[in-house]
């Protein structure tokens, strides 16, 4: 049993004390090792808990194995999404379905150690914190390229969003029910939690850890997805690209103005020569600036278009934790949109 300080003013009853949310996509190879390490840790806390495994449209036996594991591990829930919606959307689904007083998010590859979850819980309770970040002590297990790109990402995010963004903190964290409710209250749209969670300004702490190698399978975050995450992070939390477009336009204006002055001076001196090269350079420069500015505007307009459509970021096909819910279309005092029933539900 974990020895912690309880809040005497908190009399709200929760189904469980701790929810562990694990997004999964084609993780059948990693599942046995994950269960072998995670279950003893959670059983050892002595706390009522649940494990919310979100199957993000896997094409292997991930969902089948989860159903088999439920036979011997009743605390395990499977939330199966209708299609692959992406890591952040799957994480959103898991957090929206979590029923605990606290919720920890964890990847299935065991790069983030589940043994740190009890430490996070103790820290959150003893210091009355709403957020506890898992912060990497170093990146010795990463390649040189990954270390440089990750360092550049966090440096850029802290410059654009603010220093409240913890460096080297990914999606391994613990959230209180207050933080979870705040996340649920946000409009449906793609979320970047490593920036969104610090933005709320809840009391927070940190737990350092060493990130291990992936236990099995292949990474689900190749370079392409890391670039898309960086773009989403910048567009979602900063208008700096719009200001950059403005500065590029201003620069282009002064370059053209300088070219005009030079042209008039040469013409007045009577030293006019065919200017094909300078003309082509000017046209290409102006065209490139215009395309960059249009591209930046298009990214923001695309985000606005997505929000206006009000399409859910995920679609739940099954939640094994709500098997007693009535059939679809019958009104019932269940969870908010996105928490779903055993039948199809939507959310984001």
Automatic annotation (TrEMBL):
Record-linked InterPro entries: Glyco_trans_2-like (IPR001173), Glycosyltransferase_2 (IPR050256), Nucleotide-diphossugar_trans (IPR029044)
Subcellular location: Membrane
Coiled coil spans: none
Matches recorded under Pfam families: Glycos_transf_2
Keyword Transmembrane listed: yes
Transmembrane segments: 251-270, 276-297
Record key words, sorted: Glycosyltransferase, Membrane, Transferase, Transmembrane, Transmembrane helix
Major location (coarse): membrane
Ranges of residues in domain Glycosyltransferase 2-like: 19-182
Membrane-topology descriptor: Multi-pass membrane protein
The family this protein is said to belong to: Belongs to the glycosyltransferase 2 family.
The protein, known as: Glycosyltransferase
Species whose genome carries this gene: Streptomyces dengpaensis
